[in-house]
Amino acid sequence: MTIVIAGAGIGGLVTALSLEAAGFREIEIYERSSQIRGLGVGLNLLPHAMRELTELGIDARVAALGVAPSTLSYYNRQGQHIWSEPRGLAAGYQWPQCSVHRGKLQLTLLEAVEERLGNVVRLGHKFLDRTETETGVTARFETQDGIVEATGDVLIGADGIHSALRRQLFPNDGEPVWSGLTLWRGTAVIPAFLDGATMIMAGDDEQKFVAYPLEPAGEDGRMRVNFIAEKRVGGSGDADWNRAIDPAPIVELFRDWQYDWLDVPSTIAAADEILEYPMVDRNALPQWSFGRTTLLGDAAHAMYPNGSNGGSQAILDARTLAFRLATESSVKDALAAYDADRRPATATLLEMTRQTGPERVMVIARERAPEGFEHVHEVISAAELEQIAADYKRAAGFHPDSLNARSSLTPPAAASATAASASASASASASAGSQAASGTASATSA
Ligand SMILES: Cc1cc2nc3c(=O)[nH]c(=O)nc-3n(C[C@H](O)[C@H](O)[C@H](O)COP(=O)(O)OP(=O)(O)OC[C@H]3O[C@@H](n4cnc5c(N)ncnc54)[C@H](O)[C@@H]3O)c2cc1C
Description:
By secondary structure, the chain is of the alpha/beta class. The chain has a domain at about 410-445. The protein has 15 helices and 18 strands. An eight-stranded mixed β-sheet has the order 5-4-13-14-15-12-17-16. A five-stranded parallel β-sheet has the order 7-2-1-11-18. Helix 2 packs across helix 15. The structure holds flavin-adenine dinucleotide (FAD). Flavin-adenine dinucleotide (FAD) binds near residues 41, 42 and 127.
């Protein structure tokens, strides 16, 4: 079976790895960019995504790229503490949460794809459109040498928030939907704050600052953090991940946000570069799979970054799609089953991120105490705080109880084949296939 993937971002690359682990070999990835330069700033991989990367045998490589946050803490604009919760292993998951640089993650995934599948990523191929027959699907790509066609049994559109495949399937879908908020993202080396492994959010739904470590603190007590500053400020909803801007006006917007545990304006001023991005998402779709064609990742369900779920949901899509292709009796059944598994779940999540997700605690704190409080329980009870956090985790499919108990997305045949080959050949660890095998075996026995 030949599987054609449009887009070599996080979703497209993890799809290739998941398909390989499920026993597929004829996989072709077509990427618009002429070079994968590892762009972006920080991205969070939640435990449900780290579980999938563990079962793919690349968890250690990914974990080595960043930091596993111990805690997530919410504060109001005055820097007063609202709520903290443990993250990853500390929260009872069998898998950690990892904060990594998105570009480093993409390059690491690309390396793993090349090790396991060879040179299957074709750069400089911009997906244009597709035609489908009963027996196959043909995608057309624009290259500098003209139009190239690729025919396969399956076409997966993992071409991001501006997906050309989504546009072809839904010509009236329009542009991404803008919340009116603008995000400024950057990384900076600053003095370590709190325990050096805490992700913080301060403010509310009108103005907010998020920061988390991307590297452990060095001997000088300083560490690289990722931050996102956001505010409602006019402008446009034109989504371009690479628009760099002058940091000075953003520093001014946060001038008073100086806490004894973190100096927000100094953090923004220390950024290597500030990237401006509108907070946009996409409306939920009524269908992702059409015969032999389907959508995945941001192409299917781009969502706001609150809840840190964009990359993680793309990884869950990838693993589910590979599982269905390996276990259903036909391509069309597999794509329909994937659609039924993933579309309603991500639509619920999308709706929750529009309601500000777990960050609702910050909105409530501001509504009830705009000038701050002595103690948060004067304005929000402990039970209400716990309920908000638990509701979001359940809807997002990563409540510790359900995630730890859920069966694996490694297809049974692939799991037994890889487990068998792992025990038959203990010395095969250098081969690409055995990396997947050892990942699968360790996860299924965990
Ligand atoms: C340059 C860039 C920087 C980003 N930085 C961050 C960040 O700092 N933090 C964060 O949380 N998220 C970031 N994201 C988004 C994040 O990667 C996604 O939300 C998430 O990982 C889901 O992955 P995805 O594969 O669906 O989409 P993406 O990771 O966006 O990947 C889509 C891929 O498809 C390619 N593509 C687009 N159109 C076509 C086409 N017509 N034909 C072929 N290929 C095409 C793109 O070049 C890209 O490689 C960034 C995305 C991009 C593209």
